[in-house]
Structure formats: C-alpha cells, structure tokens
C-alpha cells in the first residue's frame, strides 16, 4: 500500500541571514551531514525523549534545526541531491525523526520536515527543489502549458495535469498544472478510479522492507511509514496508523497503489498502478531489527465484480504503449 502525498509546489525565498547559513568545505557536504549534523538530530530527539538536559539546551537545538538545519537541506543540499547522497548522509533518517509525532518536535518543525521528505521523495531524491515562481518563469520560456493534442502531455496523454520546466542544470522539474484541481483523497471507495489504472508520476511513495512488509498480492502485510527505522519501544501514533486502525473499526476498505519503486512481482515496471480496494482485517505489534516497536497490518483484497483479477491487472497494466510513452516523458513538449 502506498502513501498519499500533498506535494508542496512552492519553496519560498531563502529566509536565512549570512550568520545562519551553514558553511561546509567544498566536497565535504555528504560527510558533514552524516558525521556532524545527523548526530545533532539524534541527540535532540533523545533529549526530548528523556528530558536529560536543560530546557535552555534543548531550545538551542530546536532553534538550530528550525533556523539552520532545515533551510540548509532546502536551499543548499537540494542543489546537489542524489539518492546515494541522501542514503549516505542519513538525510532520510533525519527527516523521519523530525517529522515523527512521537518525538514531540514543535509542530512547525515536524511539518517542515514532512514537507521536505515528501518533496525530496517525489523528485526521487535527485532534483533541485523548484519554486512556483521559477517554474512559471521557465514554463513561459519553454512554451507555456502543454498543447492539448500532445500525445504524452495533452488532454489524452499519460502526463495530463502535469507541467514541465527545466532547472539551471537542464534537469526536468515537474509541477501540478494549476489549471486543474486535485482529486480529494479523503474519500472511501474507488474515488472515481478504475482498478488497473496506471499513472506515470510517482505521487504516491512507499518502499517495501523485507523485515517489516510482505506483499502476497491478494494479501498484504503492511507496516506504517518509518517502521523499518524506528528505535523507540513506544507505540507510534503516525497518521498512517490512525487511518488503518479506523478502517479496521469501520470495515471500510482502503485503496492500494503499487509502484515500481516498491519492487516485487506485483509491482508495475514503471510508474504507479491502482490495484483496487483492500479490507484491513487486523494488526499486530512487532519489533524491528533496531528494537523499535511498530504496527503491522493485514490487508485482504476484496473480490467482487467491480475489481478485475489482480493477476490480470499485473499482466495488462501498464500497456506497452504506456511504457513507451513513459520512456519519452523527459523529452517534454
């Protein structure tokens, strides 16, 4: 099961003074993030959990995260981001710690960390974060909105509803087309989607871990986001957990999306695919390799006339033409 995103399409002007900017020697950014900044984030989380240091010391750490660390990620690190750097420098782990409500960070920090994590992940941890102003400027210089009859970007194309610009390095940047309204995700049922529908852009992000998740097709054992990396023995009350618990109580099904990033034999070769409705039938408390407590949910696919057989969906979606068009996305319009 994949998580729904609310992707922020604007990253404001850099608010930092020169004194607030973190100075890192050339070529040392990844190592500095890993060896110096990530330990600071871990220490802050530990201090908040155990209250072992003075309030003043914790306040200083919080101020550092708010005024220096998060802006450093947004305005400096993003320019040189690669997936390998994100893994090595523990950027993902740091943002997961900061956004976890159990760690009791101030709401503005947790929200900013969540926004950055989702934006980095939506751009596959490899693209410079766009600003609305820069995208609109570059959109104008590259021909504006897609032609309606474009085979890939037009009203009948796989990228309908998305616009493209290019950053300073020539890397493609993607943004929701502001002429259209996003579908409300807070709706039960298919929500107008057809099981087997395929989408090229990964606006839903999930990653399966062998030690916490298991995808058997019609049965899924799914742990909420962050389960693989948790270190705490306390129960996590993240939004994904609350939604799944509510589904158990209400017996209302959840929509399941599989994406190429998640891997496994049921995943599409590219993009994401809607695989229909699943019922959340139960949950259990488990402990991961780090000793962290997490909840794992069991989901069963609903079999009825409204949902094609999952094997048929896997075999036919995406179509060969959709895969061919996917390979041409970066050509633009």
Automatic annotation (TrEMBL):
Entry-linked PROSITE patterns: YDG
GO CC field: nucleus
Keyword set, alphabetical order: Nucleus
Coiled coil: none
Nucleotidyltransferase as UniProt keyword: no
GO molecular function: ubiquitin protein ligase activity
Keyword Nucleus among UniProt keywords: yes
Lineage top rank: taxon: Eukaryota
Chain ranges of the YDG domain: 157-301
Subcellular location: Nucleus
GO biological process: negative regulation of gene expression via chromosomal CpG island methylation; protein ubiquitination
Signal sequence residues: none
Family annotation (InterPro entries): PUA-like_sf (IPR015947), SRA-YDG_sf (IPR036987), SRA_YDG (IPR003105), UHRF1/2-like (IPR045134)
Protein's recorded name: YDG domain-containing protein
Native source species: Gnomoniopsis smithogilvyi
Upper taxonomic lineage: Eukaryota, Fungi, Dikarya, Ascomycota, Pezizomycotina
